[in-house]
Amino acid sequence: MEENEVIGPKSRDRDIEGNKIYRFLKLNSFDELEMDYTRSYLSPKNYFLPFKEDLVTYSLQDKGWEQEINYTIHPRVIVGMRACDINALLKLDQVMLKSAYPNPYYFARRKNTLIIGLDHEPLEDCFCKSMNSDTAFHGFGMFLTDIGDKYFAAINSDTAFIILNRFDAEEITDEDRLLFKAEKKKIELKFKTQVNITILPELMDLEFESEVWKKWGDKCLSCGTCAMVCPTCYCYGMEEDIDLSITKAVKRRFLYSCNLLDFAAVAGGHNFRPDAGVRLKYRYYHQFRGFMEAFDQSLCVGCNRCGNACLAGINPKAVIDDLIETETK
Amino acid sequence: MSTKIIQHDINLEPFMSKSPDFNRKSILMQTERSFKSEIINIITLTALEKLFHIRISDHFERENFSFLPGQFVMLHLPGCGEVPISISSSVSNKEYIELCIRKVGKVTGMIHRLEPGAIVGIRGPFGTHFPVQKMTGCDVLLIAGGLGIAPLRSPIYWINEHRSKYRDISIMYGARDPDQVLFDYQFEEWKKIYGLKLLTIVQNAGKNWKGRVGLITDLFKEITIDPENTFAIVCGPPVMFKFVCAHLSDVGIPRHRMFVSLERRMHCGMGKCCRCNVGSTFTCLDGPIFDYWTVMNLKEAI
Amino acid sequence: MKYLGITLERPKIGIFDFTGCEGCQLQIANNEASLKDLFGLVEIVNFREISSERRDDYEIAFVEGSITTDSETARLKKIRKQAKILVAMGACACSGGVNNLRSRFSLPETIKEVYGEHHIDSGPVRKLKDIVPVDIELPGCPVSKNEFEWLVRNLVLGITPQFPTYPVCVECKQRLNSCVVDMGMICLGPITRGGCNAVCPRNRFGCWGCRGPSDEVNFESLMEIHIKRGFSEEQVVERINFFNTFSGIFK
Question: What whole-number distance in Å separates Cα of residue C30 and Cα of residue C47?
């Protein structure tokens, strides 16, 4: 703790019903860590893809300029990431590291973050099992499963193994093995929400002109919250700024949302997607169809953070069920 | 044993000491680094369009910069912004690239205020290109509307430089007003030296216009097309290429032999920001050059 | 001063106040760290709060406050005549702001309540746009000093400033805030223009809409989400009308 920056789930506020609202924040001591947390309001994605990130700084001269790029990231530990969040990172890896033009900023953050995962019993609305994201086998340093008075730890990196020495660790016994299996089974049986995604990619095409999009689009506030809390939404924009003395400039990336009005507006005033319903459709289209076409998996991990955070109550389960229903009607 | 995590400093990775090569898409490189380049010449074409000659300052970077007809670069003004601009010059011109820029927004407005000697940034080249090599031995039909002539200059140069490998080349060019006709100072050269058939048409003829008046599709009356041995390159506003491609399709040219250039909002050029997302593809990676079959099957492309 | 070889003029600016709390001016004046750079970029020829200099050769006028008297109307018209660019600065100038609350009561009554028998000259509250054309509206109550400086930079560089089109929610999420609506408050964040870095929700205080509407506003949905959480329509309408920033597009 005193040596590394540690991020973990922490609650400061409560909602109307008195439930704690958890967020991934910097921990000052391990006492602040709440291992029994339910779901963080925002995903920990911002520790890999910051909402705002300075990419290049420039020093300006009368005619020309010099550029400076730096990828220095201080090592950091994130404790308590769920399997769905780790799967979300693996999906981001596909885009950021394994496709054309690997992203060095993301690479530096990924390399310098030790992830300690944590199993949990699914909440009422978790549908990660339907999205095949309820378990994680790689992409983390350590993964903990609560087996009563102990944690079962899967170790995936040397750094994690060194950290393990700090704790009161012991070899796995046969009893632990059974407890672990039982716990996993218990988790598996607890999933209540199912989303049928088998025909989804086709459905997205078939229902492209569907009234469903208008129905949900009319509710949509176009506030971008869904994309901000999503563990995988990575669309971004660029902005540049100059300081008041006109000697320094910066190129900054900021995460954006395809639900925001000007997402597809081009210079000259034309907007390719002026309606909220159409923008909502494209968010789903990218999550369940576009990404599937590019990487053979959907971008959504089924954490339902967007559904939880959306004030207007737009959630993937309801939208997809609606699409399927209009199909079978 | 200390549990302090040792920093993995990627600043020490080999890519940090090399200048980025945007043609090698799969390696880690400083993708946000732009080539410092100097504006060496500015030609005012119309009230809204200027042609910029831009020369990459560093000798080594300039030597290594190579592109194919139809590709674009991100032109960068530090502190102002970046815009995608298709390269409008010959691939064999190693000295400088030419960019034809219309004044429409914040960045292009600022570019228009620059003077020769100003240093700008170039990233790229990005995107797909017109498959000019595949077109050898065939007729090529180049159809441009308005500013669409700018990206066509690069394939025109290519064809001219390898003129004997191609059969008949026709350029059809439509503009709204006579004073918006771009690059007319090159037309004679193209016609006389390289034997290209060049037809221009404007929608609203002014007093001094002596040429054809009408829509670009009217020009089809004046050419004969051999559908089995013709490739088409179409560049212009979506309405235009929709009609043009429909006509070409009726004549019998297969849709996968027609190529169009799409235009979208772009922020990165590397398939990351999703701003240029069309259906399930990204204009910057899978485009901007698409064959018409693909475009037809993309949602919201036209 | 030069930018990429382009010579930048140092424009003369004037900052003027009308009926208001002068809080916006204070925002500009209290950013000591950047004042020096600001003076380097522009020449301030008229700014009562920080200088006794009064010159009328300004090119850009920043005007704070709403217009309530005939003499103010005349003074504003004079400023408009001189300035090439007129910027309405703050909610009072852009929409009447808090002052507008007075319009809900009869004018003589309000004057009597506050000033008793003392005679004062005061008319209906008007925003600048009601009287003269306004080139740029810098929103907020008060304006954000960062946004003011950003605007000045854009004007000096000759760039048409593009204010955020998205609502407060975007920046609120970016600051990792808990949603204040979930916490049981009314918040106009989803319909209010961003750019303020969500200062109010950051301090667990629902948005009051001082920056006016974002480019896309869905009042029905906003009403629905608050009614679902137990608020009355009146409460939400009261909030929307508070700064008068949504007048003309709401109801």
Answer: 13
Cβ C166–A262 below 8 Å, yes or no? yes
C2-157 has which fold?
Rossmann fold (3.40.50)
Mark whether B146 and B284 lie in a shared domain. Answer: yes
Residues A259/A286, Cβ–Cβ less than 8 Å: no
Residues with Cβ within 8 Å of residue A242, at least 6 apart in sequence: A60, A248, A249, B79, B80, C3, C153, C157
Task: Give the pLDDT confidence of C61-81 residue by residue, as tens digits.
Answer: 999 999 999 999 999 999 999
Q: In terms of domains, do B146 and B247 share one?
A: yes
Residue C240 has pLDDT above 60, yes or no: yes
Residue A309's identity, in one-letter code, is: A
How many Å apart are CA C202 and CA A254, to the nearest integer? 19
Rounded to an integer, what distance in angstroms lies between the CA atom of residue B68 and that of residue B72? 9
Q: Enter the ipTM.
A: 0.88
Residues B122 and B136 in one domain: no
Rg (CA), chain B: 21
Q: Are residues B148 and B122 in the same domain?
A: no
Q: Enumerate the residues of chain C whose CB falls inside 8 A of the CB of residue A228.
A: 169-170, 173-174
B80 within some domain: yes
**Position A203, amino acid:** L
Subunit contact C174:A244, Cβ cutoff 8 A:
no
- The domain segmentation of chain C, as residue ranges, is 2-157, 168-241
- φ, ψ of residue B68 in degrees (nearest 5): -120, 155
What does the alpha-carbon distance between residue A272 and residue B69 come to, in Å, rounded to a whole number? Answer: 27
Residue B113 has its nearest CB partner, among C6, C160, C162, at C6
Measure the CA–CA gap between C180 and C186, rounded to whole angstroms: 8
Instruction: Answer yes or no: are the C-beta atoms of B7 and A74 closer than 8 Å.
Output: yes
Determine contact: B265 vs chain C, CB below 8 A.
Answer: no
Contact A13 C178 (CB under 8 A): yes
Tally of domains within chain B: 2
Same domain assignment for residues B214 and B66: no
Other CB atoms within 10 A of residue C57 CB:
10
Q: Does residue A273 register a pLDDT over 70?
A: yes
